[in-house]
Amino acid sequence: TAGKPIECVAAVAYEAGKPLTVEKIIVDAPKAHEVRVQVTHTAVCHTDAYTLSGVDPEGAFPSILGHEGAGIVESVGDGVTNVKVGDHVVLLYTAECGKCKFCKSNKTNLCGSVRATQGKGVMPDGTTRFHNLKGEPLLHFMGCSTFSQYTVVADVSLVTIDPSAPLSSVCLLGCGVTTGYGAAVKTANVQEGDTVAVFGAGTVGLSVVQGAKSRGASKIIVVDVNDQKKQWSMDFGATGFVNPLKDLKEGETIVSKLIDMTDGGLDFTFDCTGNVKVMRDALEACHKGWGQSIIIGVAAAGEEISTRPFQLITGRVWKGSAFGGIKGRSEMGQLVTSYQKGDLKVDDFITHKRPFTEINNAFEDLHHGDCLRTVLDL
Ligand code: NAD
Ligand code: AHE
Ligand code: ZN
To answer: Does domain 180-321 have CATH number 3.40.50.720?
Structure first.
């Protein structure tokens, strides 16, 4: 098939707030420095639902969403040297070119090579490789578009992995697990004995918990409004769980309770909810003088964070983290190895499995407390 368009099934987001349309589409051949991938498995991340809902300033339609996926290289365009046909790959919404100002800085995992066109839903040459059967172009998403049996990505936006690792599991390393784990061990760099609070116990938050546990944090307190998250939190390594809707006494706030539980506040807190009020609580629950709060959750267009500047003057630090600060092409191999050795939990996040045609049910699963991730088999 190399060089020829492929007809396959995809889930198209035609309009914000509407279910996806599962239909046949055409996927063009990869151009220079592009790779066509047979996506074997993808999960649905909260961010896909966020963009589909219409509140993402970069959301554009019609498009093919999905960014937590893995598959097999089907064909490569001219000049591609980092992957070959048949390679097992994880797709990377945070590219790594190794050459740009960002990559060379060694200060960030953000890469400047394809981010501008990625945010517009097109390939680096400004065009799309997807069309529906009416010939209408369909936009790409986050440089991945994993909700299609075949996708085309920039060669900097994927990484080859050990083919013995099951693609049905390591697809989760394409976002949720890596994001939370990396936020704890890289962005925050949690050390033995540190105290940690995690707001929001989805796949991202629970992955922060497992990262903090791996570093030997002395306290890991999970805050979630859904009691169904308590057992999971404890299973992943939390030492405590607080439901702010139920567990606060008269006159207590979540901030005052956390400060009381930790002799003055936490060394690190993480927002994994995307709620800007929660982000404020997370910052203010930090210990005076040094506590750091890491924002991971994605907030809607128009939302802003606020706190009294005095909170920062007195030493609390606000930080953010994208893809856990992980450089995908350099560091994914280590994460896959950790998973294979049993050191990094991945399978425990897979609460649901569905055929690709049930993708709209997978979006509904996300809203239920019994779901961490639904993996779709394409
Ligand atoms: P999820 O929906 O599975 O989990 C969110 C959790 O937050 C749920 O358990 C929910 O009950 C809880 N929650 C909601 N409101 C709360 C509140 N007010 N207080 C406490 N808990 C509350 O989502 P996820 O897939 O784990 O993603 C979490 C967030 O991280 C989303 O905003 C997502 O868009 C974002 N995200 C960011 C990155 C990044 O690189 N920065 C990567 C992946 C996901
Ligand atoms: N498009 C949104 C921002 C979305 C966002 O912040 N995305 C996270 C990843 S979420 C994965 O589930 C991220 O990595 N951001 C860094 C980047 O370069 O996009 C908006 O507000 O415009
Ligand atoms: Zn995601």
So the answer is: yes
